[in-house]
Amino acid sequence: MHDHVSTVPVLAGPVLLYLMLYLSVPAVAGFAIMRIITPPPHRKDALLVTGASTTAFLVAMLLVPEIGLPQQVLVLLLATGIAPFALWWRTPHLLIRVTWAAPWLVAAATATAVLRAPYDLPGSFTAALTAVSWLTLCAPRSRPGRVALRLTAGTLGLAVVAVTAQVASAGGWL
Amino acid sequence: MTTHAGAWSASGSLNQRHHKLALNLFMFVVLAHWAEHIVQAVQVFLLEWPRPQAGGVLGLWIPWLVTSEWMHYGYAIIMLVGFFALARGFTGRSKKWWKIALWIQFWHHIEHFLLLLQALTGRNLLGYPQPMSILQLVLPRVELHLFYNLIVFVPMMVAVYFHMRPSREDRAEMRCTCATGAA
C-alpha cells in the first residue's frame, strides 16, 4: 500500500523546508549562545528549543541529498535528539533521573560534530543539533563544569549558525 | 468530576452517555482500515501482486484512496483526534492501555506527516527516489506500516476489553454505559 506513487494536488517545493530551517535555527543557536550567561531553561523554553532542534534535524534530512553518517546512526542520533523534547513535554518528573546522562550525551554529540565537520557538514550539523537538545538538561554545579558548559554552548551555537549561513549564501543545500 | 488523584475528569456527553456510541463508531472505522491493510498484505504476500497494484478493497475501486498522501495523513489525524476525544471516558487499566495506543498512533501520525511533507515539497528524505519515513530507513515500507497499525490496534483492543469488563474500582469511576455484565 505505501509503495504507491505519492500524489498531492499542489506541489510547494523546497521553499517551505528552507523557511522551516531558517525559523528554527535561530531558536536553537540563540539558546545555545545565551546559555553562556543564562541559567538552565524553564520548561516552555526547553520545549521551544528542543522542538526547533528536532525540526531543523528533520528538515536537514529532507534537504540534504546525502549525509555521510550511516542510516542507523542517523536514526539513533535523531531519536537521541527527540528524547529531550519528549521528556520535557510528557514526563518532566523523569528529568531529574536523566540529567546525569546529559553532559555525556552533549559531549559525545559535540565530539561527533567536531570530528565530522571537515568532510561531512550535514552530519556535523545534525550532531550539533542533538547536542543542543541535551544542553537543555545540563545544569553543572562545579565551576569547571560551568566553564565546560559555556564553551560547548557557545561553540555549538556558532557552529549551527555558520552552517545555516553557508547554506543560505550558497542558495541551498546542494 | 475527579474521583481520585490521577483519574481524568470525564466531562461532556461524548465521554458519558454517548461514549459507547462514539467508541463503536470509532472502532468501526479503525477495523475497516485494519481490514484494508490485511487485504493488502494478502494481495502482496500471498497473491504476489505487484505492490503498486495492491489496493486493498476500497483502493481497487477508488485508487486515489491509496495514492493520496493527504488521504493517509487525514486518516492518521482522524484516528488521533478520536483517541484524544474518547480518552476521558476511560478509567484505570483501560485508560493506561488507551494512552499507550494513543502515543504510538501519535508517532505513526508524525511518520505520515513526514511523508506528506516530502510529497508536498518534492524533496525526499536523504535524497531517496520516493518519500521515506524515519523507521523506513531501517525497515521495509509495507511491512513497517502494517506493523504500525498492529501495535496501535493491539493495545487499543486491550483498552476496549478492560473498558467493557472493568474492575470494581474502575467501574466506580466510569461515567459511560460501556461496561458489560454485573457490577
UniProtKB/TrEMBL annotation, chain A:
Signal peptide: none annotated. The chain crosses the membrane at residues 15-34, 46-63, 69-87, 94-115, 121-139, 151-173. The keyword Transcription does not apply. Pfam families: DUF6239. InterPro entries: DUF6239. It comes from the Bacteria. Keywords: Membrane, Transmembrane, Transmembrane helix. This is Uncharacterized protein. It comes from Lentzea fradiae.
From TrEMBL, chain B:
Keywords: Membrane, Transmembrane, Transmembrane helix. The chain crosses the membrane at residues 21-42, 70-90, 102-126, 146-164. This is Uncharacterized protein. It comes from Lentzea fradiae.
